[in-house]
Amino acid sequence: MVHSRPDPSHEAEWIRLCKSGEKEAFAPLVDAYQRRVFSIVFHFVRRRNDVEDLVQEIFMKAFAAIESYNAQSSFGTWLNRIAVNHCYDYLRRQRSSRVTYFWEMSEEGQRQVEAQSHNPADNGSNSAEKLAIGDLINKLLARAPAEDRVILTLKEIEDRSVEEISEIMGLKLSTVKVRLHRARKRMIRDLEKWQEGR
Predict the structure, then answer these.
(1) Residue partners of 152: CB distance under 8 A and separation at least 6
(2) Can you tell me the distance from the alpha carbon of 58 to that of 86, in angstroms, rounded to the nearest whole number?
(3) How far is 188 from 168, CA to CA, in rounded Å?
(4) Among 155, 156, 158, which residue's Cα sits nearest to residue 166?
(5) C-alpha to C-alpha distance for 162 and 139, rounded to whole angstroms
(6) 3-class DSSP state for residue 23?
């Protein structure tokens, strides 16, 4: 997935103007990043009304915190961090309504899903099969614990690198790798349990 961003000189000027109190300068930043933030939030939450509210809250939070942006990372990464943290807080609040996560799966099932997650485009599936796989992944993500959903969405849906995830989540690279591995294994186990119950 390609993540385009506005011209860095324009972006820097908009940020400078926002920091000097010109609220109107935030509008082009919203325009530039709204689709990306919406996509991230949608993959976490999946209820359009909630997504739209959360996206609005995220941009309000970003505007209120713009003074703290110090350009050590890109504005997009900084904004993604706010979005992920906001979604994570939301999901934790919603935890009581989450479907129970299942934990058992065969080694063969693990190999199949891991192969699919590493190379989804090259498995010879037709379009209907790909849509069905995507739908299944979305259902499994919807059932996942908030921590798993965050890291799997960034890696598998948003196609972020481990380095980007590390920066967005404020975690060490090794921690991201361990959490990603565990989250994938839990999703694979949940898939097997789901298949047994069909």
Answers:
(1) 141, 144, 180, 183, 184, 187
(2) 7
(3) 25
(4) 155
(5) 24
(6) helix
Mean predicted confidence (pLDDT) in 108-132: 50
Angle at 179 between CA 174 and CA 185, to 5 degrees: 130
pLDDT digits over 63-84, tens only? 999 999 988 888 999 999 999 8
Single-letter amino acid, residue 30: V
The domains found in the chain, sorted by start residue, are: 8-97 (1.10.1740.10), 107-196 (1.10.10.10)
Coil vs helix vs strand at 137: helix
Return the residue matching tokens 């706010």: 82
Half-sphere exposure of 137 (CA within 13 A, CB side): 19
Task: Tell me the pLDDT tens digit for each residue of 29-75.
Answer: 999 999 989 988 887 777 777 899 999 999 999 999 999 998 888 89
| Angstrom distance (rounded) from CA 66 to CA 27 | 13
Largest CA distance in the chain: 59
pTM score above 0.85: no
Helices (H), 46-126: 48-64, 75-93, 107-118
